[in-house]
Amino acid sequence: MSDKSNWIDFDKQHIWHPYSAIGADLPVYPVVGAEGVRLRLADGRELIDGMSSWWCAIHGYNHPGMNRAIKAQLDEMAHIMFGGLTHPPAAKLARKLVEITPATLQSVFFSDSGSVSVEVAMKMAIQYWHDKGIASKQRFLTIRKGYHGDTFGAMSVCDPETGMHSLFTDALIPQFFADAPTCFYGHPCNRDGAKSMEEQLRLHHEQIAAVILEPIVQGAGGMRFYSLEYLQEVRRLCDQYGVLLILDEIATGFGRTGKLFACEHADVTPDIMCVGKSLTGGYMSLAATLTTEEISKTISEGDPGLFMHGPTFMANPLACSAALASLDLLLDSPWQDRITTIEAGLKNGLAPCRELPQVEEVRVLGAIGVVEMKKPVDMKSIQPCFVEAGVWVRPFGKLVYLMPPFIISQADLETLTKAVVDVVEKRPM
Which of 32, 140, 380, 412 has the highest Cβ tally under 10 A? Predict the structure, then answer.
């Protein structure tokens, strides 16, 4: 199927793409290569990637250091089962994650996607309370406007009304929802700002195993940035009412917000943390759920004396090696300076959008730039406009946003932001 038209036609007729329909009348662009921050299309055009392939390709594409690590591991072994066996990349990666995450997180469970890491965290919380003799704690509390993944447990803690999964509401386990934070990043937030969260905990803490939320940045649920004091108050409330705190750092982890992990903005430590996406620099699918010795010991010494989860591709050696290489590249680089530079470029480059009548708000944090429109975008018309401008930007809902690779140059970042301003400016109210 080497002929371009043949495989593109086959794709359209037989392959589902994310949140799409087979045969949908929406543009899908064939990519035949990627290098640095550029995607090369089958027709020869190159696009500057503003999305980091959904926020994970932080080092760009075809990175020689990443390539060497994958090739070296391939010569050793591509995969072995993790049941009853182990291997150096898994042990080294677990050690590295324990070193760089909050100090109390000492136990690591590997899985193969962010959604599954959330499932693991939820099961972990339920099993912990079961083994503590409090089996009534089976439910979860979260905030509205959140997003935690596409599997059933993860869907149940996504926004129940405006989220992408409202179709499945009747099939999901009912959870508890507090109002989304209204105190935003950079602004103070007193205890009244978490009043809805406190009310839900007061009423339902005996049923709640954990509060789960994305720290500081609500990602695919709306790209909203909330006050660090709100997160601090949630941690205090969890301790007061005896529930665990799960922080979903899948989108925010590994430098994206200007801190290695977003919870560091608020100096908050969770009981369970989920990481994924940029963990492997976009090379392989891998995620991890970290927890405390108290939780892992309670589960390990309880009934049935083991944690009830085990993915087939858990701790895949290729993926672990990619993650180790990615973390070394990140930590050995001036990543804080890079994020500061990107943040300044996004603020300056997107600023003209604030004057446009069709724009509700422009907000920037770290290497995240968001232009929120007053009305939802029309993907069929807006996507080709970005491609024609030589950039890859993938809006959703009312949001036109950028999350570029950390290695992006100032010139390429200026091209990205200019394209956003130009395309948004031409979009009518």
Answer: 140
